[in-house]
């Protein structure tokens, strides 16, 4: 028997008030997006950013606010036409440091807590991407791009307008950017009385990036508390070696001597996000053990500077760790980990004798995505960012003794006060092998059980990316529900938060059990009398787009419409045109020219089953998507049209794997729902 759990309420109370309006694409772009946040060392004040977008201008702007950690009204402290980002506190909680792009270049600024006396304190001609001030307040690190390799104009100075690029090795492009000879380097400088001293490039001449691209940030760099040492993450590999490896390491830079030491060299997987203990005697970081497996379990490793030994703090813990931070007492470590399709706060305590010595702190129906700890040992709380399917990100105060969360910010209260959200239901559905699939079912806000509704199967990307309580500004379940669709979102095989075995089961089996999980979920929910079984659709992006292409050749007449965004269609051509080759090397079993040929290429490539396609399909793909290159979508669209299958191709020349520009996003939504409405409602 399938278990059904109704999730009452939402993180943001205002979003569940019964009003007269429904969620729309345009309304999504009116929402303020709560971003970075930092709790003052004295535990009294939170500074945070909010990004707002102007749809007509097709751009956004980021401002900074403060709010009392105990709650109250927020105060706008930086609301200019420039972008104010990356807030950080002085050790005495009297000043806020931040980045401001006034004049078109990100520089370091300071201000008083009330927003007064804002002034620029660096004078860089190049963007400062991120920064970090040592807890002692004596030094600062900054990340800037540095030209290392020769460009076309360096090689051919008499051809200043030539646009050709020359490459002799792999990783010549990555996600959305072609390699241009520049790398992100860490600079360190003395810092006193808001004066930045002469900056030293601690990676001078190196053809490596810190933070690692494309998504790395300041969490990959950390000062010791006395400002004498700096730990940073870097994958010091190039070309083919970089493209086929996940072997990043933790490097320790000594300011006095200028020497750098690799302290995680023994591990051949990812090592990232270092953090010094309060007493400077230990260094913590996150680590994946399996080479080339980018979705391996993230572990907490602790290096003892006295014994020079490294131990795993999370041994025996079957889930992956993110955003780990030391508590002021130096014994506890707080972190985020997914469990049963929600991302929760956890705590490790090195003094406990239990195994493993950790416990789950929160049980909210939501996703924690970041948090700040007070440096005050007597204040048992933290401030965290959390979202849910029905609520965009807001800030919460979490009691560290009880795990109780209290909402602090209500950024979108006025925007959403009259917007109805649909019911979110958690179902446990039996798979073909007897295991249970946690599945979210989202209903239209005006749901009437006596009616029949068109229903969408949502296929997740990643492939190892949880269908959690995320609030997306494009793949938004509540928006789909507001358009009159029931949404079925299964946590099929190959997703985190259900243990390492469940997560790993997809690798080498893309067209296997995970696809049977999808069909089990939609078949079970389709038994409900309010589901119109003649009006089913399947939608997804990336691996979700691959899933749609796969289902198109195997669905046995279940679906009446498909939508694939930036999906993988041809595994062989995908291998030859993507950039992060460690991913297909592990998940597909290697290259397609190997002997014997991995079964992924012989059994699981959608191109080999295109002759079975018989259902209208919308293909979406973007020019600057180098992760899943444009040709994948073009191949699929061409195959559909040559077989006289109703198909549409939506192409964005200025987007990558995602659609980020406001007007492009709204256009995407209109085409998305226009296609579904045509084939599932008419």
Summarize this structure briefly.
By secondary structure, this protein is α+β, with helices and mostly antiparallel strands.
Would you write up a description of this structure?
The protein is an alpha+beta fold and 682 residues long. Among the domains are: 32-128, 6 Propeller (Neuraminidase), CATH 2.120.10; 417-680, Rossmann fold (3-Layer(aba) Sandwich). It is 15% helix and 35% strand. The protein has 13 helices and 42 strands. It has a nine-stranded mixed β-sheet, with helices on both faces. Strands 11, 12, 15, 16 and 17 form a five-stranded antiparallel β-sheet that branches. Strands 3-4-5-6 form a four-stranded antiparallel β-sheet, with no helix packed on it. A hairpin with a 4-residue loop joins strand 24 and strand 25 (309-312). The chain is globular, with a radius of gyration of 25 Å. The relative contact order is 0.10.
Averaged pLDDT: 95
* Known CATH architecture of the domain at 417-680: 3-Layer(aba) Sandwich
Number of helices in the DSSP assignment: 13
The CATH superfamily of the domain at 417-680 is identified as Alpha/Beta hydrolase fold, catalytic domain
Indicate the structural class.
alpha+beta
- Characterize the overall form: globular
Please give the largest β-sheet: 9 strands, mixed
Which blocks of ≥5 consecutive residues have pLDDT under 50? Answer: 8-19
Task: State the CATH topology of the domain at 417-680.
Answer: Rossmann fold
Q: Strand order of the main beta sheet, please?
A: 1-35-36-38-37-39-40-41-42
Query: CATH class of the domain at 417-680, anyone?
Result: Alpha Beta
Say how many strands there are. Answer: 42
Q: Cα-atom Rg, whole angstroms?
A: 25 Å
């Amino acid at each position: 028997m399938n278990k059904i759990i109704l999730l009452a309420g939402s993180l943001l109370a205002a979003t569940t008030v019964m009003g007269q309006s429904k969620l729309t694409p345009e309304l999504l772009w009116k929402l303020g997006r709560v971003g970075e946040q930092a709790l003052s060392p004295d535990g009294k004040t939170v500074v945070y950013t909010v990004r707002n977008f102007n749809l007509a201008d097709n751009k956004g702007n980021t401002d900074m606010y403060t709010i009392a950690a105990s709650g109250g009204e927020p105060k706008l402290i930086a609301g200019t036409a420039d972008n104010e980002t990356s807030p950080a506190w002085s050790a005495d909680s009297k000043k806020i440091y931040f980045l401001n792009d006034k004049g078109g270049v990100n520089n370091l600024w300071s201000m008083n807590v009330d927003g007064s006396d804002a002034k620029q304190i660096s004078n860089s001609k190049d963007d400062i991407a991120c920064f970090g001030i040592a807890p002692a307040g004596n030094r600062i690190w900054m990340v800037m791009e540095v030209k290392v390799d020769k460009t076309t104009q360096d090689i051919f100075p008499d051809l200043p307008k030539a646009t050709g690029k020359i490459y002799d090795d792999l990783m010549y492009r990555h996600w959305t950017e072609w390699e241009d000879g520049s790398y992100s380097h860490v600079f360190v400088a003395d810092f006193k009385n808001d004066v930045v001293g002469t900056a030293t490039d601690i990676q001078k001449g190196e053809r490596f990036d810190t933070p690692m691209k494309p998504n790395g940030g300041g969490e990959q760099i950390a000062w010791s508390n006395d400002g004498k040492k700096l730990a940073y993450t870097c994958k010091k590999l190039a070309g083919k070696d970089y493209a086929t490896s996940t072997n990043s390491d933790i490097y320790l830079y000594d300011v006095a001597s200028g020497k750098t030491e690799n302290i995680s060299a023994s591990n051949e997987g990812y090592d990232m996000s270092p953090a010094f203990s309060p007493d400077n005697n230990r260094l913590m970081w996150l680590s994946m053990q399996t080479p080339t497996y980018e979705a391996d379990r993230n572990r907490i490793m602790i290096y003892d500077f006295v014994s020079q030994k490294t131990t795993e703090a999370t041994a025996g813990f079957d889930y992956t760790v993110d955003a780990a931070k030391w508590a002021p007492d130096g014994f506890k470590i707080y972190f985020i980990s997914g469990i049963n399709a929600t991302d929760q706060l956890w705590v490790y305590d090195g003094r406990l004798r239990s195994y493993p010595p950790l416990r789950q702190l929160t049980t909210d129906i939501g996703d924690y995505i970041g948090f700040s700890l007070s440096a005050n040992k007597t204040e048992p709380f933290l401030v965290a960012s959390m979202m849910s399917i029905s609520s965009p990100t807001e800030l919460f105060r979490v009691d560290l003794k009880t795990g109780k969360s209290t909402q602090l910010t209500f950024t979108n209260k006025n925007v959403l006060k009259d917007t109805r959200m649909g019911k979110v239901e958690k179902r446990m559905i039996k798979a073909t092998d007897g295991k249970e699939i946690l599945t979210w079912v989202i209903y239209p806000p005006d749901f009437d059980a006596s009616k029949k509704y068109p229903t969408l199967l949502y296929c997740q990307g990643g492939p190892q990316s949880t269908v959690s309580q995320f609030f997306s500004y494009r793949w938004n379940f509540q928006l789909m529900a507001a358009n009159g669709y029931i949404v079925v979102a299964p946590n099929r095989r190959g997703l985190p938060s259900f243990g390492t075995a469940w997560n790993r089961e997809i690798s080498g089996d893309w067209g296997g059990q995970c696809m049977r999980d999808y069909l089990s979920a939609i078949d079970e929910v389709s038994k409900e009398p309010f589901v119109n079984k003649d009006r089913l659709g399947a939608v997804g992006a990336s691996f979700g787009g691959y899933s749609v292409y796969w289902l198109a050749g195997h669905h046995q007449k279940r679906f009446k419409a498909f939508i694939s965004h930036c999906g993988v269609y041809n595994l062989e051509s995908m291998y030859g045109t993507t950039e992060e080759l460690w991913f297909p090397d592990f998940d597909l079993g290697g290259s397609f020219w190997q002997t014997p040929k991995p079964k992924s290429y012989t059994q699981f490539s959608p191109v080999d089953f295109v002759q079975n396609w018989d259902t209208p399909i919308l293909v979406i793909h973007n020019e600057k998507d180098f992760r899943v290159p444009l040709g994948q979508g073009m191949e699929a669209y061409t195959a559909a049209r040559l077989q006289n299958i109703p198909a549409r191709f939506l192409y964005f020349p200025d987007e990558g794997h995602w659609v980020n520009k406001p007007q492009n996003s709204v256009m995407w939504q209109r085409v998305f729902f226009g296609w579904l409405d045509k084939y599932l409602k008419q």
